[in-house]
Structures
1.
Amino acid sequence: MVDTSFFCFTQLLGQEKAKRLLSRSLAAGRVPHAYIFKGPEGVGKRLFARGVAAAVNCRDTKLFGACGVCSSCKKFRSMNHPDFLVVSPERGVIKIDQIRRLTKELSYPPYESVMRVVVLENIQTMRREAANSLLKTLEEPPENNLLILTAEASQEILATLTSRCQVVPFSQLTIDDTVDILVQQGIDREAARPLARLSEGSPGKALLFQKMKMIGLWRKVVSFLSDPAVDRDRDVGELLQLAENMAVLKEELPSLLGLLKIWLRDLLLGDVQNSGVEQDGGALVKSWNSSELFDKLHAIDKAERELARNCNKNLVCEVLLFRLQ
């Protein structure tokens, strides 16, 4: 029996609204020239887009979705389909040269399928000149091409792009669905639950946390900040070492700061059990009032703004840890 979970977008856990919208469009044969899949990071937008591409090009017309065994599906399985293109940010940005190359490619008919499918990932990273270049394609879409744009919901994208595409909303997954996905990826269920919760229903983020061992570093930072025995002057060496370890995360450092914000919000709500910090032998932890916790959240907000301005990561982390003590 062939595993078709990659090809059949209906097998994606959660995202029922997106499934209904795509199901109706495909069943009625009214597929627009472009979609925007908009939602939080790591909730299945790219996987869904690839599943739609496979379903659109599947040779088995009796099956809704993708069969996984026809010649088209086999090429999708090997990631070698000539009519499936992915445009991803280069060094964090989609550039105008990428859009120009894409425009040239779209001027030719699909090689072997009825429909060429192009996925443009994270269009919120697109420079304005690149977005304006893409607008021309969206205004006069070439025949037999489907463009699927993915966008991070928390980031701004040009309204002119949105107005020329059908927007398909994606949402955070439930913790249980996220756990199930992580277990399918080989993560122990006991370890998957805290990952699912700390990623706020984003399997993609959870897998990234696992890969980068971010949870372990997060626990070290939280334990250091929570320990009443820590002395600011005496233990400054440990603080500086933690700051250095944080800075090593580079582009993923904001994700760690996001975890710290979740921890502080849990403390504000009095949810110590779910705060993710396991104290050995009932060890004492610092107790902060709501005003102090809000100050710490503001300190993280400031650190995030400084990182966005490309300030020195080591220095940002050092100052932040001093403020969080």
Note: DSSP finds 14 helices and five strands in the chain.
2.
Amino acid sequence: MDYDYDLYVLGAGSGGVRASRMSAAKGARVAVAESTYLGGTCVNVGCVPKKLFVYGSHFHEEFEDAAAYGWTTRAEKFDWPTLRDNKTAEIERLNGIYRTMLTNAGVDLHEGHAVMTDAHTVSVDGQSYTAEKILIATGGWPVVPDLPGKEHAITSNEAFYIDTFPEKVVVVGGGYIAVEFAGIFAGLGADTTLVYRGPLFLRGFDDSVREFVKEEISKKGVKLRFDTNVTSITEANGRKELKLTDGSVLPADTVLYATGRSPNTGGLGLENAGVSLSDNGAVFIDEYYQTNVSHIYAIGDVTDKIQLTPVAIEEGMCIANNLFTSNPKKKLDYSNVATAVFCQPNIGTVGLTEAQSLALHEGDLDIYDSSFKPMKHTMTGRDERTMMKMIVQRSTDRVLGIHMVGPDAGEIIQGMSVAMVAGATKAQFDATVGIHPTAAEELVTLRDVARSA
């Protein structure tokens, strides 16, 4: 059959754009459909605007700390529309860059809602296109649990565009988005409470990191309510009230729900193509991103595996290689994927947590950890600390995990992840000369075992 395209991609987010461009560069005829915004979650309502907001929310501390260094200055006032609109202008600039990248690569962009009408046909706003291969890269979407008054809550999608900056905010959730936005709102001056149903947030991260971050963000004014859930939200005269499971009531101007994201597969017509989905709507794939339908593939958050932009991009590279070259098939190694949480202070982590290490190597572990005041604050007097932790398998001397909480943790752990992927040993870290004075040098000067496990 003579198809319109060799590859049709549903979704122009980070993974879909990379797969489209690289496939076109290898000679494939490619089209991509996008109904919301070019660049996907990361560029528009995720990583990029979030980090810009984190930068903005930290300036009040910089103004305060400047006095210890001889600067007589103070923050007069914060203007929310300036931050919001400058952020939006930057996002629109990036949207244009994504459009140009696709155009320059020879990829046809179809802006509209795509629906699969059969296993080889995609319909976009009434226009049908056929493709030999199809890639699902539609990402994820925030989910608000079904509770009375849920319509009074916003998600991270809307938080980047609110009209008036709130005086009092309640953030509901315990993942990285909830913790990051709690820090953003508090840093920009809102009275902020974080409500989480479990005993401690950031489930899945190293327990030492979770405990440390709890203490640090509490110092920055975020009120923490653990083992608590919301039973209902009411609104009167623009003010919200949240009823909690412990019987208390929390007032708020803004209620942000960051309780998870689900794969964005609704309304795509995947059932018409016979694509199998999990109970939560995730697309089932094998190790090479192939669905149960041999010519249909999926990458990124829609598969509900590791929800990180760089992971989706690398998966997109694998798709282009596997489908349109004669090179050996590629798949991503997920074992040492580094990540950062841009709470304040930041988290950076790569490799196994202590709990994961114990499950695999109990009785064969040495744990190194360190906590100290960042050099900058030895003069400011700010009560903020940095934490570093390294987990080593004693019998092999191999480093299994590195975890950090502190300024620029993501930047530091990015370098550490190269060493982890290379299989670095503790002896190699010890043989590395540190850069002094830096926080990062602590990771090559950890000499004393804090405990064995």
Note: The first strand starts at residue 5 and ends at 10.
3.
Amino acid sequence: MKNYKLLIEFDGTRYFGWEHQPNTDMTIQGKLENVLSRMTDGTMEVIGAGRTDAGVHARGMAAHVYLDTPMSAEEIRDYLNRYLPEDICVTEVREASMRFHARYNALGKTYRYTCYYGTLKPVFNRKYVFVLDEAPDLAAMQKAAVFLTGSHDFASFCGNPKMKKSTVRIVDKIEIGAQGPYITFTYHGTGFLQHMVRILTGTLLEVGFGKRTPESMEELLAAKSRSLAGFTAPACGLCLMEVDYH
């Protein structure tokens, strides 16, 4: 029995997120486990670095799985990619220490949210961007992002009303930029609450649309009330870019 670390990219459009869901096999975790079960003629659990929401994409999801197989890491990767759906790809498989845990050993994550504003439709990127009706004020959003960067209680940006654990998180980078008609929000932090990146993005967009001031972010953080924050941006624009480990 060996422990293997997997790097995975996927188009989340068709899926109900990473984690197993009742009454459906359309999850990323489920698809990986189905193929590995066929490969090893057994059952196992693939543990991901986090639980991406339904419709969210990934370019750098990390996971681990214990396998008893004579196949090399490269052969495992190739077998997975032979039988996985075309919208899921395992880009790397390598042997890890038996104590490696994709979730608990993760030091940080980078997410990118992409919006589009232009006169033409983004036909070939429509599944991966949030199309805006108006152009937001980039400078105002960048100013607001400064107030949200650092260690804060992000209860106002948590989509789980029953959250009992600490809602304090460290977000050490929020970068907002534009390239042509595409506007990107890049977040790096030690961890993120349910829907947190999408709520942060929706709130920053409201600043960009003049519905909030950048300075109001301080009051919003202090309030610790989800009802006071902005809308939850659609899942389609969000992508997990990378998970950090030692």
Note: The domain at 2-96 is CATH 3.30.70.580 (Alpha-Beta Plaits).
